Amino acid sequence: METSKQHFKILDGLRGIAALAVVIFHFMEWIYADFSQNFIAHGFLAVDFFFCLSGFVIGYAYDDRIGKIGVREFFKSRIIRLHPLVLTGSVLGLLAFLFDPFGGHPELYSTAKIILVFLCSALLIPFPVMADRGFNLFSFNAPSWSLFWEYIANIVYAFILSRLSRGYLLLLTFIAAVALFLVAYRSGNLLGGWSGPTFFDGAARISYSFSAGLLVYRSNWIIKNKLGFAGIAILLSLAFLMPFSKWNWLSEPLVVVFYFPLLIALGAGATLTAGLKNFCIYSGKISYPLYMTHYAVLWMFGNYYTSHQPGTKQLTFIIVAGIILLTGIAYLVMVAYDIPVRKYLSNKWSKRKPQPDLLN
């Protein structure tokens, strides 16, 4: 690795592709209860890719300086980076719940319970109590479940993984891989982690992928190649588009354990053409805001689809327009809220000067 903190722009771009896959998957899962008919039925594996990418980036950004800045400053930097959009997603989810014109039924819940659910969502305290929202860990913003585990991974990194030798990290990653295969075998897939009944599936998913990403960085598994962003983006997309079958219990953990770390290594070592540079930078910046703000609209879409049963042409128009709209909303949230708030908090709370946004 170079000693200077270069920016892995292709990994930025891949993160945007993964975020878009999640959004499309969330639209399509409302339409196809039978995932074998869903063309992007494995879009949820984008979360495991996020986890792996996060492990790589955290190691790259902090391994050589967490001892200098201290655990307290590390936690400050992570909260500043992640939590403003956790709050935004919770607020949007609450508004969508209260004012959804197609359903939601807030009148069935007491004001106290709604306030409690919102506070738990804003503070990332799992509270899976709403049956009509699938007992999501965070009923007002379902994707926050992965941020909960991201926070747990950051805590474990600060106190344990940052001090762990590569040999012990390799052993820990192997144990986590075994646990991931067991979870997939027991459940038939790796779709869990987002709800109360599947809570500990999330622990297995973050444990392996974050450790694997960190191991890729510490082992310097950077593969120089000429695939470019387009080639690696296609390879990543194939993981989300592979058929949903009875072999998911095997194919999904194989993808997560071997394929995603390989893509991280390829993405870190690939050469980016000048024409795609700006796209990759934008894609990386918009990915987290898009991921954390889109699900409020998805609940309204789901209630509309259930109650109106629109035809294929109408659905196609709604989904395409919805993706464009959600991307626009994410951009506005990023520019008008997330970036200014993070800049303000960095200046006010952090003792160090704001660092370049190295993916995370």
What can you see in these coordinates?
With 360 residues, the chain is mainly α. It has one domain. Helices cover 69% and strands 0% of the residues. The chain has helices at 9-31, 46-62, 66-99, 111-122, 144-159, 166-187, 199-218, 228-241, 248-269, 277-293, 295-308, 312-349. The two termini are 18 Å apart.
Percent of residues in beta strands? under 5%
Number of helices: 12
Round the Cα radius of gyration to an integer and report it: 20 Å
Low-confidence stretches: 353-360
What key attributes describe this structure?
mainly alpha
Summarize the structure.
With 360 residues, the protein is an all-alpha fold. Helix content is 69%, strand content 0%.
Lay out the secondary structure.
Layout: H1 9-31, H2 46-62, H3 66-99, H4 111-122, H5 144-159, H6 166-187, H7 199-218, H8 228-241, H9 248-269, H10 277-293, H11 295-308, H12 312-349
Helix pairs in contact: 1-2, 1-8, 1-10, 1-11, 2-7, 2-9, 3-4, 3-5, 3-10, 3-11, 3-12, 5-7, 6-7, 6-9, 7-9, 8-9, 10-12
